[in-house]
Amino acid sequence: MPDLPEPEPDAISWLSPSLANDLLDCAYRVAWRMDPAYRTFRRPNTYTELGTVAHAMLEDAGKGAFMRFEDEKLRRAAVEQAWAEHVGRAHLELANAWSPITTPSPEEWPGYHLTKARIIRRAMHRRSVDIPGEGGGSSPLIEAELRDDVAGLRGRPDRVEGPTEARRIIDLKSGLSQADPTRAQLRQLMLYGHLVETSTGDRVSEIAIEDASGHRWAEPFDHAVVDLLLSEIEDARSTFESARAAGSLADLATPSADGCRWCPFRLLCAPYWESLESSWQHGSVLGTIDRTKSGAKGSIVEMTTDSPTDASGTSWIVSMAPAEYAKVGTKLAVAGAEITGAERHLRWRWTTVARLIT
Questions:
Q1: Start-end ranges of CATH 2.40.50.140 in the chain?
Q2: Domain 276-357: CATH superfamily, name plus number
Q3: What is the mean pLDDT of residues 186-195?
Q4: Which of 30, 50, 155, 280 has the fewest CB atoms in 10 Å of its CB?
């Protein structure tokens, strides 16, 4: 296995609920996140940008931005105009982050049309707007910054609603396949609930995931679970800082098929390549380039692999690769390529990331 870089992270000064999740799931990922040299690896994708648009639209609706239009046609025009503006900003952010790669137009983003229809339908109706005092409720908190200086936590929950003695924490999800909340989602919501109680003095009774259609999966807020979670985070943080001081951060890596699938740092991560198996179906390969050939849509690269580990020593082909990665005799790491129907054949796509290793 070739030598790969190792992160040199800054100390953890604050933890957001998402960073706390990473710390508990794979502290080595946190090491990469906390190293400024690798900040550009955390680029947005079509799913995150579509989620940003959906969040912004629901935030606009929650603040009553569209209900001032009593005429339904005028209201729809305002909603659709807001959608277009949010999408325009998201598309520009995506293009800037991936430049000089050409990114797909929003209409080509997976789930775009269904998400748009669901969000516009919700934004059109008054039930998507919270009115302070209505039904015994209190003013909603939307993307409000909350912090707990003692635990070193801070974050912005998507939405906090309900009366002060029984607040509900809502995490908005724009994905089309949301089902029961995952363990990571529940942990994040519990931490947001803790931040609400610590920052505002309100009491939290429920946490919930809400999808783009408005369906909710709710769970009671559990103080005992939060206390245990805070203790686990503090222990993980102490372990991280000890490993940072000792230069043994790679020992904290916990590579797995699910845990590494969307990690933006897997390309650089030695424990990932040492654990990767073909069955993970990540579209990832690392090896030595033996031959290259120019094709109509990019280079065809043939390589002898070091990883996936169960295919070490076999020949793999990566087609449609950019010419700058087609260098015979060099080591090449490729992650996030398209898995084709042919055995040991990957196809480059616009989100594929790669690195020549010297």
A1: 276-357
A2: Nucleic acid-binding proteins (2.40.50.140)
A3: 96
A4: 280
